[in-house]
Amino acid sequence: MTITLKVYDNGDHTALVWMPTDGQPIPRCRGFALRRIKNGREDYLHGFVGFSDDQKPDPANPWEFPVQRFMWWDYDVTPATDTTPGDKVQYSVIPVVGDTKDALTPDTSLASPLTPEMTITGQDTAHIAAFFNRGIVATQWVSRALQASPDSSIKQLIVKPGDPTRNALSGMLRPRILKLLADAKACGGSIHAALYELNDPELIPALMALGQNCHLILGNGAFKGNTPPGNDENHAVRQQLRGKVDLHDRIVSSGHFAHNKFVIFCDASGAPQRVLTGSTNFTATGLCTQANNALIIEDAKVAQNFLDAWNRLKAAGNGYPPDLVNGNSASTTYNVDEGAITPWFAKTSAQQDLVYARKLINAAQDGILFLFFNPGAFEQDPNHWTLLQNILERHSDQGANFNPNLYIRGVVNQEIPLLTEPGTPQKGKKQPDAVLDPSVPATAPVTLYSGATKPPTRLSQDVLVPRAIKDRFHQWEKELLSQGVNIHSKVIVLDPFGAKPVVMTGSHNMGFKASNANDDNLVIIEGNAPLAAAYAANIIAVYQTYRWNSYVEAHRQDPRVWHGLQDNDTWQNGYLVGDRLAELHFWLGIHTAAAPAAATTGAPTAASSVATAATPAKTGKAIPKTPRTAHSAKAVGPAPKAHKPTTTKRRRATAKKAATTPHRPRRKPTARAGSSGSGGKRKKQGRR
Questions:
Q1: Which residues contact 477 (CB under 8 A, 6 or more apart)?
Q2: Is 32 left (phi over 0), alpha (psi -120 to 50) or beta?
Q3: In this model, does residue 361 exceed pLDDT 50?
Q4: Which tens digits make up the pLDDT trace of 395-424?
Q5: E runs forming strands in 58-134
Q6: Alpha carbons 173 and 400: distance in angstroms, whole number
Q7: To the nearest whole number, what is the mean pLDDT of the chain?
Q8: β-bridge mates for residue 263, sequence order
């Protein structure tokens, strides 16, 4: 018996997933030591919780603080930049065995082989890259950073260019956007941008530096009315930019939002070369205190498609004329890096973007992961459903696309009527009892509801709406989650390790209003396995953090709550049966018919303990590209043996016996720029 290990890298962190090859608990195993080789030096990842509250880590014996789980994250990695290479890392998982906690030793005979070397990078394939900030994942270090600067608030720190906390929270997003703008200026190029909000102290000067080569459609943000000054949140910066750049006002009326966040980069001849899109507003909070993503596509045809949409917006002025809506209501698909990219733009005439996305969601075979911000209220009419409703419908035995084995994980940042808060029952319909109480016993750990008049949707794990941690718990410090909205990404990932991976992202909130009333974009990428794995790793890290936070909030005053490691080997039992076993199978890819195909020009996202060596990514475009080291996207070698699934009845029985306490996410680095973090206050709830 040995251990199979896979490692996923998305440029922000690595995610490790492993399990015994025979699927059985390891006798006498008190947890796992995670050996790492980083830039040629050996060290260990380990938990920050021992077998008792007073136990302290022994640097000479790091395995004495083992990890009692089969998934872990390494945030102590540095990605490649324009001037420095990314960390090169390898990992091995070693069982820590002993008859008691006082007689532990690492059993190297059962360890996973050392994974091939991978370089931390945000470049997923040759012409597509995803970048993430660190505005949510590692809230502990932000708390400590604020303690080190007692005279500064998070709001003050994130607007100080050069501040270490600002730099760390913004992750790779801020430097990547600034570099794109600087490159455009350096080569005599131009940009065409459509922005919802703008107030960041570094991004504003970077736009102004381009002068009249910055063609900017600036919306009116989260405005408060149809008359000045309340009809323009961006009034101050609009006056600052007037005459300095080629500025085009887009002041939409109530019921609409000019919600785009994209930039097209053109060469010196004016030909579009690349496009930046995603969820990130050009604000200090967008960069630093909300979980956000940016997608960069290096393809002239895709960039031209965005430029066509930009020109439609420019011609539309402040309205939604037929030429704009009709142009948005059809799409073109482009082949990039052996995958397909389909950009959609809103407002549409009949929600064609959502129709396209729903077909893909309904076809998912293995799993769906997501992050949502303000997808909107649940609707009774399926034509008006949010994409969140379509996802949850896959777990409803009343739905036409019911699949009880579909792996679903996600985080929703909104008080959604009839899901996270009570709704008014329709006449003659009774509000179900305890619909909002996730502790109510059910056939699965958590129950979600898509409306008060529909049967409950049972999920194998919870889908969380973020909640603040108000008090200290064990040795963990106060979180900053209560500062405001923390998740702003809008992402859906389908079958990331299957034959047909899909990523959906952009400014689009994935609901009916976004498609029917707003300026928005939704980019759907099919067949790009490395990109799907990168986004999946980002989503599960956010999900696990909030799962733990939710647990702490529910049990912070409960003396029976978990407070340390378990001093026997039975802790494994809850992970190797039922839903948790299915989760490991999903991440190891052993429930799929085939592993994702390697992108021949691609960079890595996954490596297994028997994965192949690295191959370089392509470079070259009219605008200089950042050199990056790429590695294979395919995790090769023998997969763990797939075990016979339990029956539904048996699975439910074992689920009740399984340990339900979520393990704490590991503490994150505290003192280096680029460390993972969270916190910060969003300016107002009205943000989109």
A1: 140, 143, 144
A2: beta
A3: yes
A4: 888 888 999 889 888 877 765 554 444 445
A5: 71-74, 88-97, 105-106, 118-119, 123-125, 128-132
A6: 40
A7: 78
A8: 193, 276
Contacts of 657 (CB under 8 A, 6+ apart): 573, 574, 577
pLDDT at position 615 over 50? no
Q: Which two tokens stand for residue 246?
A: 């080629």
Name the one residue in this structure whose structure tokens are 């009845």.
649
What pLDDT, on a 0 to 100 scale, did the predictor assign at position 50? 86
CA proximity to 363, closest of 470, 180, 512, 500: 500
Beta carbons within 8 Å of 381's beta carbon, 6+ residues apart: none
Give the separation between CA 671 and CA 164, rounded to whole angstroms.
9
For CA atoms 61, 65, 68, 72, give the dihedral sign: negative
Quote the percentage of the chain above a pLDDT of 70: 70
Rg (CA), the chain: 24
pTM of the model: 0.82
- Chain-centroid distance of CA 686 in Å reads 22
Query: 342, 352 in Cβ contact below 8 A?
Result: no
pLDDT class for 661, splitting at 50, 70, 90?
very low
Determine the length of the chain. Answer: 688
pLDDT of residue 341 exceeding 60, the answer is yes
| The token pair that represents 65 in the structure block | 């603080």
What is the token pair recorded at 419?
């899901």
Query: What span, in angstroms and rounded, lies between the C-alpha atoms of 518 and 265?
Result: 24
